[in-house]
Amino acid sequence: MIKMMMMQIDGKEVCCDLSAPQDISLHINGETAPNAFWLPKAEFNAFRMGSFVGSIEEGGPVRCDVVTLAPHGNGTHTECVGHIAGKKYIITTCMKDVVDLAQVVSVDLEMVGGDMVITRAALDSAWKDRATTTLIIRTMPNADTKRDRVWSGHNPAYMHIDAMRLIVEHNVHHLMIDLPSVDREEDSGALVAHHEFWQWPDAPRTNCTITELIYVPDTIDDGRYVVMFNVAPFDGDAAPSRPMLFAVL
Fold first, then answer.
1. pLDDT grade, residue 241 (50/70/90)?
2. Does residue 224 surpass a pLDDT of 80?
3. How many CB atoms lie within 10 A of CB 189?
């Protein structure tokens, strides 16, 4: 059954189907989740105190896990300008939007200077509809191994600075990408694409976000969707998130 909802997004009246949400997040489970930047995998350990154990399997009355994670390397996460600007900015105050109108685009990676990157030309060619403030990039080829890949030490693909300039020029507020980072794994801390996106420090775009390590399966077509961000309330620069797409009717 289609559950239609009419809503106003950025002054536009949008009708979407709430009956079939499409999850584009990679869940944090400590086992098969992707891992990046040599960060430790997430851990779920039963809480223990005296004779109490927070594990049904070990005879406890409830499950109660102590969870250890590093959002930037343990699965889908949304980050704010605090990632490059420090503790003054946290995701729970920078992320103002709950839903937005989004465009999914599939972009071919290209070899530049020995690295696989998203170039401005490739993005410019693939990105036809530029009227949304959320851009969701699916890099091609779209291997299923993105779901649980260990990216650390393999120089993953990233976004060329000129491609990021194109994104900023078209006033994208929320960027989502299926790579560990918009910047090169090893860049001596330059983080040029991050700085370009947030226009830091000259004209900070503090209400804009980057979501990394998503996965957009081939069953989802390029085009417009309503996206619900579902960012966890962590008072840090980044937090786990579960973006969900809803078809626009």
1. very high
2. yes
3. 7
How are beta strands 244-247 and 223-228 bridged, if at all?
antiparallel
Q: Which two tokens stand for residue 76?
A: 């889908």
CA count, 13 A, side-chain hemisphere, 119 = 11
Residue 83 CA: distances (Å) to CA of 57, 88, 89, 149: 39, 10, 8, 23
The tokens 């009956």 sit on which residue? Answer: 19
**Cβ neighbour number for residue 171 with a 10 Å cutoff:** 11
Cβ atoms of residues 67 and 42 within 8 Å? yes
CA 109, 145, 214, 30 torsion-angle sign: negative
Cα gap 126→115, rounded to integer Å: 20
Q: Topology of 4-27+75-247 in CATH? A: Glucose Oxidase; domain 1 (3.50.30)
Instruction: Express each pLDDT in 78-112 by its tens digit.
Output: 999 999 999 999 999 999 999 999 999 999 999 99
Please spell the DSSP secondary structure of 166-199, one letter per residue: HHHHTT-SEEEESSS-SS-S-STT--HHHHHHHT
Q: Rounded distance, CA 173 to CA 175, Å?
A: 7
Share of the chain above pLDDT 90, in %: 90
